[in-house]
Amino acid sequence: MTLLETLEQDLETAAELVLCDQCSARAFVKVTLQAGILTFCMHHYNKNANALTEKGAVAKLLNV
């Protein structure tokens, strides 16, 4: 792989990164609520998991 191909691949990967809705960390969980979609890093998902579950949220791991 050439340097240019490596840089292009890195840019594509960076463009796909999703950030946590509560901080600037990389999101690993997508949560779907009736009101919309949230994304969370693992710290904030774990912190809010019980409340989200009580509200009927559906959580899915993002492709990483």
What do these coordinates show?
By secondary structure, this protein is an alpha+beta fold. Helices cover 42% and strands 22% of the residues. It contains two helices and three strands. The longest helix is centred in the N-terminal third of the chain and has 14 residues, at 3-16. The protein is elongated and about 50 Å long. The protein starts with a helix and ends with a strand.
Summarize, please.
By secondary structure, the protein is of the alpha+beta class. It is 42% helix and 22% strand.
The main sheet comes to: 3 strands, antiparallel
Low-confidence stretches: none
Oligomeric state as shown: single chain
Q: What portion of the residues fall into strands of 2 or more residues? A: 15-25%
Determine Rg (CA atoms, Å).
15 Å
Number of domains: 1
Number of alpha- plus pi-helical segments: 2
Estimated structural class: alpha+beta
Shape: elongated
User: Roughly what percent helix?
Assistant: 40-55%
Amino- and carboxy-terminal Cα gap = 22 Å
Strand order in space, largest sheet: 2-1-3
- Would you report the number of β strands? 3
Write the element-wise H/E pattern from the N-terminal end onward.
Answer: HEEHE
User: What's the average pLDDT?
Assistant: 86
Task: List the keywords.
alpha+beta; 2 helices; 64 residues; elongated; three-stranded antiparallel sheet
Write the layout of secondary structure elements.
Layout: H1 3-16, E1 29-33, E2 36-40, H2 42-54, E3 58-61
Antiparallel strand pairs: 1-2, 1-3
